[in-house]
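Blackboard transcription, Thursday session:
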Amino acid sequence: MDNGASSYRRFRDNGDISGFDEIVMDYSDGLMLYLTSIVGNIWTAEELTEETFFLLGTKKPKFKEKCSFKTWLYTIGRNIALNYLKKNAKHLTVPIENAPELISDEAAVEDAYIKKEQQIAVHRAMRKLKPEYQQVLWLIYFEGLSNKEAAKVMKKSVRSTESILYQAKKSLRSQLEMEGIDYEKA
Amino acid sequence: MKKHEEMIMDLHRRMDEYESERRMKRAKMTKVAASVTPVCAAAVVGVGLWKGGVLTSNHDQLINSTVESTASDVIVSADNDSSADKHSANTKNTANKNDEPATSASTAELQAATSDATIPRTTENGENVIEDSGANNASVEENTPVADDRGALVSDNSTITNTEPQRATEATAVQPESPVQQTTPPVQQTEPASQSVPDNSGNSSNGGSNMWCLFRCTIEWNGVTFNDNTEIDASAYTQDKYIGKVSDFKGEYKDSINYLIHPDDSVYTSKENPYVLLIVKTEPFPLYGSVIAMTNPAFLDGVVYRPHTEDVPYEDIQVWN
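(Written on the board underneath:)
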């Protein structure tokens, strides 16, 4: 059991708002970057992240501890993001004048969350891959989830997830080679 | 991009709004429920009563009573129609064929009727009609509006009609040799005006006597009206003073078989009751007894007025149809 689970229990069972605040502080950046790999831009990912925590704060769904709190939270975030994509499939465009600002915002979050310069370079190369590859690479190499947990978040079988992971690593290697980044060090 | 603190603040604000909105909805729902619940409860109770048969039974009773009354109305109207037709047919028969008075023909029929309660009677069309001479006629009299045309006899229906069946019984007991008298009271009740009702002047078709009818007799003494009363036993009273003949008093009486008292009869007061006068008959074989009691309205000694409907058994109506 991680800290997120105990903080959420304090909030849910005892009404401790500080538990909710701790969850937001600990998981908002990682969830935001994960949702960015789904929806494609950091601003929408931020809104969806806030929506995920709003759902946690109002509906207070029960955490049954069948998986880690991060896996459970990311699963909720992914469902919300997919619902959003379903509802707004025709309006998923970002104004071109906002593109530089969008990139800088994402960079700021990367800097705050990833911190290692090489990993940031890999993440930026990863952002050019297919969304499915981005998700599996983010969950396994940046969030440190196991293949099984990543499969649960993505609602795929472990075997399918491993296959996607293999393809994703292959694509990322070629992407790093194209960008002249030494992927062995990364 | 929001900082963590800003995101937390936004989340808290949104959560507070959500909570307050939820409370408002709950309060609104509570109000609606409070207003709707009594209506629903009343509806449930109503449906429960209805399904339980409480309301249905009353309804059925109402329907049954309505059906019964309607059926009786139909019977009565049928009686009226059939009796009217029958009486008119009788009148035609007697008046047109033989040039005889209608009442004499009816009397002959009635005399024949005394020997058997139900006899086939031939109408002008040659059809046999089963009649019950007494009770059926009584039922017709009860329901026939023609009876209103009979003048004095029917206008005093409340007093006369109740007593007449018993009067017939007494008369039969006194003089069983007279078959006409046995049938007179029911016929008096039943026969319509065209056949049986003489006028008060006595100009009936057979000279003022009509055995089918008994008219109310009254005499006035000291400003008080005395009516004939066969409900009481005249022999229970003792003659006191002779106060004159009947003809000395004002009132309704006539030297006819249709009247209990005749002008030549003697009038006595009674020792026991000042409200009773005793009429001593002068004729050698009086039909209704040698002494007739006359009472005024103040006399209430043991007189029981039965409901008029007791004289009309339902079976009689059925037989008539």
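Lecturer's comment: Confidence is low (pLDDT under 50) at residues 87-208, 303-310, 315-321 of chain B.
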